[in-house]
Write a structure and sequence with these properties.
binds NADP nicotinamide-adenine-dinucleotide phosphate; alpha/beta; 7-stranded mixed β-sheet; 6-stranded parallel β-sheet
């Protein structure tokens, strides 16, 4: 037996139960890993609430790092004792997790397991958003919502490293300071100021080349008005709630703009793509070009508190559960 967080019925943070579960066995091509840190991501709250459906019961979590404890059949290139990190693998809020060998990346020398766990899902997301969804070019101005969040802080740094100018939005003075320290050129407190008016002022009425919007319902309409002609609205999440259906004619009225709703899984489509994005991410980390901020660590048994803090907008950077 081993301990894990289990959801038996969808609902609020109180449905996150810490329980004894059967020790999983790795099948062909799989690894059994002793989890040293599990990443908390906003998508975990959508799964917990049932916004994205999953078969019950389930163990939440899609990201982590740890030490390989046993190999299933047909595993090459990974050995017992290796430190590995993963994203997009279900069931990570656990002391032990079964992870497909093709979904792990070796934790590089000079990087600790916590940093690796913290970097994977949100770091790979920031990477694909600025390289593949709207590829930021030198001289572009882009708007990043929730710029002090887990994805937000990494996205600001990734856009800056490609030569972009970044306008960030945040809700508090503490978050403003963090967004500026990550490199944001301008920061708007969107809970106090009309961010669309402020973006128009800051860009001399031109608008931004892209808006990276993971907030969703509360920001979507105004985000569209922030775009320059033929700009791109990258809707990549819904921390304030899902966006209602959109009339395509609005894209014309806003200046022949583009709307996309991308997801990480489609950007780790092959082993080569996964390796390429991980290599770029970790070389930026070891080279000091990207700082991974761990905002809080919680014991695994306190996953509920982590979700309450995340949904209560009380967090910055990455949240980790430590078994
Ligand atoms: N599509 C993908 O591939 C992909 C991958 C990873 C994450 N995501 C999405 O990216 C977004 C950010 O994820 P994350 O894990 O890094 O979370 P996060 O940004 O660390 O946390 C959410 C933040 O959203 C802001 N927010 C605005 N309105 C909110 C509301 N009503 N309730 C709660 N938060 C609100 C808050 O920042 P302020 O207090 O500053 O407003 C809050 O701290 C999420 O929507 C997530 O689903 C998408």
């Amino acid at each position: 037996m081993a301990e894990a967080v289990v959801v038996r019925a969808t609902g609020g943070p109180e449905v996150l139960e810490y329980a004894e579960v059967d020790l999983p066995a790795p099948g062909p091509g799989e690894l059994l890993v002793d989890v040293t840190a599990a990443g908390v991501n906003y998508i975990d709250t959508y799964h917990r609430r049932g916004l994205y459906s999953k078969d019950l019961p389930f163990t939440p979590g899609n990201e982590g790092a740890g030490v390989v404890r046993a190999l299933g059949p047909d595993v090459a290139d990974v050995a017992v004792g290796d430190h590995v990190a993963w994203a997009e693998v279900a069931g990570s809020y656990a002391r032990q997790a079964v992870v497909p060998a093709h979904s792990v990346y070796p934790v590089p020398a000079g990087v600790d397991d916590e940093t690796a766990a913290a970097a994977m899902l949100q770091g790979l997301t920031a990477h694909y958003l600025v390289t593949s969804t709207y590829a930021v070019k030198p001289g572009d101005t882009v708007l990043v919502h929730a710029a002090a969040g887990g994805v937000g802080l990494l996205l600001v740094q990734a856009a800056k490293s490609r030569g972009g100018k970044v306008i960030g939005t945040v809700s508090t003075a503490e978050k403003e300071e963090l967004a500026r320290a990550a490199g944001a050129d301008e920061v708007i407190r969107y809970t106090e100021t009309d961010f669309a008016e402020e973006v128009a002022r800051l860009t001399g009425g031109v608008g931004v080349a892209a808006v990276y919007d993971g907030v969703g319902k509360d920001t979507f309409d105004a985000s569209m008005t922030c775009l320059a002609r033929r700009g791109m609205l990258v809707l990549f999440g819904a921390s304030s709630g899902p966006v209602p259906p959109v009339d395509p004619q609005r894209l014309n009225a806003a200046g022949s703009v583009f709307l996309t709703r991308p997801t990480l899984g489609h950007h780790l489509a092959t082993p080569d793509e996964f390796r390429w994005r991980c290599e770029e991410l970790f070389s930026a980390i070891t080279g000091g070009r990207i700082d991974v901020r761990i905002g809080a660590r919680y014991p695994l048994a306190e996953a509920r508190r982590a979700h309450e803090d995340l949904e209560g907008r009380r967090t910055t950077g990455k949240l980790l559960l430590i078994p």
